[in-house]
Structures are given as C-alpha cells and as structure tokens.
What we know:
Elements: E1 2-4, H1 11-17, H2 26-41, E2 45-48, H3 62-73, E3 78-82, H4 85-90, E4 99-102, E5 114-116, E6 127-130, E7 136-140, E8 146-150, E9 153-155, E10 158-160
Amino acid sequence: MAxxxxxxxxxxxxxxxxxxxxxxxxTGDNLARLDAVLEVTAAEHLVFLGDxxxxxxxxxxxxxxxxxxxxxxxxxVQMTLVRGNHDQHAGDPPHTLGMALVNDPWRPVQGAPVLxxxxxxxxxxxxxxxxxxxxxTRLSGLARDSVRLPCFAWAPGLLVLPA
Length: 163
C-alpha cells in the first residue's frame, strides 16, 4: 500500500483560466511520479490522502484525457481517495477512474492502529497519516542560494506527507 497526499490535479489549469501564468505539463509530471511510486513499491493499493482534484473540472477537460488512460494502465491497482477539503468543492472523481471514495478518517487495514486522514489530527490510539499542510523545508548554501523543497512533517503519532 502506498500513500500520497494533495496531488491537486487540475490546479495549473485552474490558475491559467484565472489569468495566472503557470507552466503546463504538471499533470503529466505528477502522473509520471505516481508511475514511479507504483513501480518502486509494487503497491497493490494506492491511497490518496485528500485533495485529488483542485477544483471542479469541466466534463470535457483535458485532465480526463490524461487521467483515464493512466488509470487504465494501472487497472490492477486498487485506489482509494480519502476526501479532503478541495474534494468537497471539486466533487468526486468520475466512476471511470474506479476509485473507492471514503470520508476522513479511514482505517486502511482493519485492526491496524493506523488512520488515513486528510486533515492532520492526532489520535490517542492510532498513528495518523495525513496531508493538507503541504510541509516544506528550505535548504540554504554558503552564498545566498537556497531552495524550498517538500518534506515530511512528523510528530508523535502523526506523519504529514508532502504534497
């Protein structure tokens, strides 16, 4: 089982429609990263910890032209979306993506002390895997060079995954 958080499919297109100059190709890049995760882990189940979609896409959106064939290539992988705050506004992905849709919190393995959530809330009895916060860290060099990178955030009983 592999967990990813906050992929926000359609975000760049939403920003471009609003007149913001953002690069294209982000959906393809994200799908390639997911391909790599599935290949490296040999996961039989991919869990999205919320915010699968950024906003409600049009029915004829180019997004579906990329997501549907990607999902067909990975038809053997079970996929579950733990709904997040963006998913509430964007609506559920179409049934053609063959994803199980669950509400936050969700126990991925019955009897195991692990909860999958979108919002990071500590549980007394479980370890929580969550998203939502988009944690980053800044690495600085000797000069004024620096780079901001996604990272994991950890606290006892809580692991927040990078977006």
